[in-house]
Amino acid sequence: MDVVTLLWRRVGKVRAIAALALVAALVGGLVVANWDSGKQADPVNTAADVALPHASGGPSGSPSAGQASEQASAQSKAQDAASAAAAQAKAAEDAARKKKEEEASRSVVRTLGPPTYPIPAECDVYKTKSDNKWRGCGLLHVAGFGMDQMGPCLEKLWDKESHWTTTAKNKSSGAYGIAQALPGSKMASVASDWSWNPETQIKWGLGYIKGRYKTPCAAWAQSQSSGWY
Is the pTM of this model over 0.70? Predict the structure, then answer.
């Protein structure tokens, strides 16, 4: 005789059903408890939960690929901005220094006394045109050239180059002075006052012409054919 039949006879129908229900409930509770316990203790599931990606694109606390790219881009822009600022600062410093040097140069007392070399009377025709041309005519003779090299050639050459102006400067090349020396500091080989003294510039210019073209007229011919001398 099985257990259920025996229980049925001893406790009656109603009591037997209640007892069976209680047993079923106890068995079910144990099963559920064991299942929950197994789930919480499962190391594989636990590790998987920790490694799951978050909404930010990676594990908690780690930047996504997009964020890393943005950070790198921001850093590169900051470095570029710093380099540009440094370049601007250097350019401003250079400009300020150049301006200061020019102001200091202009502040020097520039007095040009009477010529210390003979100027032929035939050069007086240039006295009414320009003091620089008059002195240039005298220095032309000192250099060993005649009047045939002055009016037809040297006057025209330096009229074209600088209008016989001591501070004339070519914006493109930087050539400077009456003879347009490039750079102007070359004329320091004659004297340190090359930046303003017409006699220093004329002496240098005549020396350049003599060494390269022999005569002012040859230099003028070169200038007419090519635009430079």
Answer: no
Name the DSSP class of 127.
T
Q: Report DSSP state, residue 155.
A: H
- Non-local (6+) Cβ contacts of 222 within 8 A are 213, 228, 229
Residues with Cβ within 8 Å of residue 150, at least 6 apart in sequence: 123, 126, 136, 137, 140, 216
Is residue 181 helix, strand or coil? strand
Q: At what angle do helices 198-212 and 131-142 cross, to 10 degrees?
A: 40
pLDDT (tens place) for every residue of the chain, 229 residues total: 555 454 445 545 545 555 555 555 454 554 444 444 444 444 444 444 444 444 444 455 556 777 777 888 888 888 888 888 888 888 888 777 666 655 555 544 578 899 999 999 999 999 999 999 999 999 999 999 999 999 999 999 999 999 999 999 999 999 999 999 999 999 999 999 999 999 999 999 999 999 999 999 999 999 999 999 9
Q: Is 108 exposed, middle or buried (0-12, 13-18, 19+ CB in 10 A)?
A: exposed
Residue entry with tokens 């025709």: 125
Say what the alpha-carbon torsion angle 171, 223, 190, 150 is, to the nearest 10 degrees.
Answer: -120
For residues 229 and 223, give the distance between their C-alpha atoms in angstroms, rounded to a whole number: 5
- What is the rounded distance in angstroms from the CA atom of residue 136 to the CA atom of residue 203? 8
Q: Which residue has the tokens 């919480």?
A: 40
List 176's β-bridge partners, or say none. Answer: 169, 181
Are the C-beta atoms of residues 208 and 181 closer than 8 Å to each other? yes
Number of neighbours of residue 84 by Cβ within 10 angstroms: 10
